[in-house]
Amino acid sequence: MAEVKSEQVAAGVPEAEKTEKKEESLISILIWALVIALVFRTFFFQPFKIPSKSMMDNLLVGDYLLVSKMSYGYSHFSLPFSPDLFSGRIFSSPVKRGDVVVFRLPRDPSIYYIKRIIGLPGDTVQMKKSRLYLNGKIVPRTRISDFKLKDKTGKVRIYPRYRETLPSGKSYTTLDMGWNPFNHADDTDIFRVPQGDYFAMGDNRDNSEDSRFKRSVGVGYVPFANIIGRAEVIWMSFDDNAPLWKFWKWFPKQRRDRIFTAIK
Predict the structure, then answer these.
(1) 264 among known catalytic residues
(2) d(Cα 29, Cα 148) in Å, to the nearest integer?
(3) In the predicted model, what is the mean pLDDT of residues 219-229?
(4) Distance between CA 223 and CA 153 in Å, rounded?
(5) What is the pTM of this model?
(6) Coil, strand or helix: which one is 186?
(7) Where are the domains positioned within the chain?
(8) Active site (annotated) includes residue 54
């Protein structure tokens, strides 16, 4: 019996060492996983969730996006906690008219917004009777089938839908309930986009706080430094506003037809 006990004690030493090494290895793996995730999020793709209806019907509440941070280069807003390490952008590339971008709200950089870039530096932008004018010319649009969406009460809401085409040929859909003389966003002054800034609008024209509203109460012009990146793909989508950790709602609430669809 003494021999058996001796063997068990002797064998227990390396087992303890193995357990300790396994724990150290697991901690090391977790640390490296966090570092890799942070690097990926900081320099390559950052995930976002759509919380509002301002970009319908292209983006819906409950869509989960990947935003390319490589598209336009990096400003200090691209980094976690936005340390003021440098000014301007590095590895800069121009934003294109029609791009869907995520940016830091100019009056409160802690808030992220997503809109479509309509006006580039030097452009003039105006809304007249709910129609978009760019550099003095009306932007053509074509009436297409209505967009229908069931709300939380089960009622189906109908939105008139149009296909709008920018001078570059970029085409996308917008929702517009028509001209409302009491809606100041349907009739605006002429906006002249300053150098270094951009004019952003939501695709759901009657339900979007965007550059049509001055910076003190809305968005105003968007500085290039505030733009985080270009929205590239919907990687997951749910038809309610439940958090992602509620995995039991994934399949009943999942919009499978939207998974891994490109954002136009």
Answers:
(1) no
(2) 47
(3) 97
(4) 40
(5) 0.82
(6) coil
(7) 44-262
(8) yes
User: How many other CB atoms are there within 10 angstroms of residue 69's CB atom?
Assistant: 22
Q: Are the C-beta atoms of 147 and 57 separated by less than 8 Å?
A: yes
Structure tokens of 174?
Answer: 């917008």
136 torsion bin: left (phi>0), alpha (psi -120 to 50), beta (else) = left
Chain segment 80-123, per-residue pLDDT in tens: 878 888 888 898 899 999 999 999 999 999 999 999 999 999 99
Nearest to 152 by CA among 237, 242, 236, 235: 242
CATH top-level class of 44-262: mainly beta
**Amino acid (1-letter code) at residue 125:** V
Cis bond leading into 57, ω under 30°? yes
Q: Using CA atoms, how far apart are residues 218 and 260, in angstroms rounded to an integer?
A: 31
Q: How confident is the model at residue 191, as a pLDDT?
A: 98
CB 230 within 8 A of CB 99: yes
The DSSP secondary-structure symbol of 213 reads S
| Cβ–Cβ < 8 Å for 227, 238 | no
Catalytic residue among 69, 71, 115, 211: 115
pLDDT at 18: 57
Closest by Cα among 100, 108, 66, 106 to 200: 100
H or E element, residue 42: helix 2-43
Distance CA 131, CA 129 (A): 6
Angle at 47 between CA 44 and CA 52, to 5 degrees: 140
Q: Which two tokens stand for residue 95?
A: 């934003």
The catalytic position among 54, 71, 208, 237 is 54
Cβ partners under 8 Å of residue 143, min gap 6: 160, 161, 162
Backbone angles phi, psi at 189, to 5 degrees: -70, 175
CA distance 101 to 81: 20
Bridge partners of 39?
A: none
